[in-house]
Amino acid sequence: MAEPAQVPSLVYLVTGGCGFLGEHIVRMLLEREPRLRELRVFDLHLSPWLEELKTGPVQVTAIQGDVTQAHEVAAAVAGSHVVIHTAGLVDVFGKASPQTIHRVNVQGTQNVIEACMQTGTQFLIYTSSMEVVGPNVKGHPFYRGNEDTPYEAVHRHPYPCSKALAEQLVLEANGRKVNGGLPLVTCALRPTGIYGEGHQVMRDFYNQGLRFGGRLFRAIPASVEHGRVYVGNVAWMHVLVARELEQRAALMGGQVYFCYDKSPYKSYEDFNMEFLGPCGLRLIGTHPLLPYWLLVLLATLNALLQWLLRPLVLYTPLLNPYTLAVANTTFTVSTNKAQRHFGYKPLFSWEESKARTIQWVQALEGSAW
Ligand SMILES: NC(=O)c1ccc[n+]([C@@H]2O[C@H](COP(=O)([O-])OP(=O)(O)OC[C@H]3O[C@@H](n4cnc5c(N)ncnc54)[C@H](O)[C@@H]3O)[C@@H](O)[C@H]2O)c1
Ligand SMILES: CC(C)[C@@H](O)CC[C@@H](C)[C@H]1CC[C@H]2[C@@H]3[C@H](O)C=C4C[C@@H](O)CC[C@]4(C)[C@H]3CC[C@]12C
Predict the structure, then answer these.
(1) 153, 336, 363, 366: least CB-packed within 10 angstroms?
(2) How far is ligand 2, taken at its centre, from the CA of residue 136, in Å?
(3) Measured from the CB, is residue 167 less than 6 Å from ligand 2?
């Protein structure tokens, strides 16, 4: 990658750039990467807001494409200095088949790696996930762990399996020669549960609460801690890694980094109420209203219904055996590896992250505000 030049000279590619996280990465790059000459936004579904970004000094190139199509990926990668690969199927609700999840998340990632090798792009940042680690199928808690904490990562669900395989492909590709003979430098970022403006699951919870007269019903004990991270800080970490990866290739190449900030450790439901409460919703119950065995039964019935209805309609409720197990297992990280390796500090405080998310919920259609 060219030396930091006075004149903007770099070309970045963001796959999945129209998604929840991708949009924040795209906007953060335009705001905070002065070396950018061109920003390519590659996505299966291009968003209308891209048009408003084309009026700035950086050339924003919207590319409608599919990461499962190697030739489309290669065309988008060719000539780029950095690829941020965040495209993926984030599906734990049974919307896509296991085969499709694998094709997009694993084969799609392989296509990105091969495109970098073929076209000579040296720097690849992959958006991985906490789920590469856990929670595992045995429900073992991961309490304030870090990148080196021993943990038995055992997965059966297609989504975490696909993220683990894709991350492994990316890390193993580090150091391979790209076209032109220089080494490929890769690293993987592992966000925990991301929240913030544009988070679809948060929107689903809000709408569910509105349907029940402003009430949500506690299903998970408050003692089950979940690590969450604000989308703006995840985007910032991607921008920083992309900036530092060349200078610190020996240290950062082939590494994984959890994405973290000062968001408090709370149960998934209590954490959501930090935003939904100020927007008029109430979480009913200081303890789960139903016994766990009944929740397991309901989740299993949901899975059975999904299977039975699939020929007719896609039934994808929030509660299924996998989401219940994940929600009910403590998973929190406590690390400073990103700060030690490339000087990361959260760009947004907890207070700012909370205020921005509340403002977004309040602006949602049908908001109680
Ligand atoms: N949301 C979270 O809590 C979270 C946490 C950890 C990691 N992640 C990871 O972050 C990344 C982005 O997640 P998100 O929450 O923004 O999801 P998202 O669904 O909002 O964004 C994914 C984007 O990828 C695009 N995409 C999907 N299939 C594609 C294909 N075949 N070709 C090209 N583009 C395709 C989608 O159109 C979408 O714009 C994913 O890799 C996900 O695994 C998300
Ligand atoms: C219906 C109740 C049991 C309710 O509490 C279920 C919540 C459930 C939908 C979420 C609980 C934990 C979430 C996951 C977690 O935040 C991390 C994830 C990793 C990321 O890569 C993708 C999203 C997710 C799997 C996230 C999905 C929603 C939950 C399962």
Answers:
(1) 366
(2) 14
(3) no
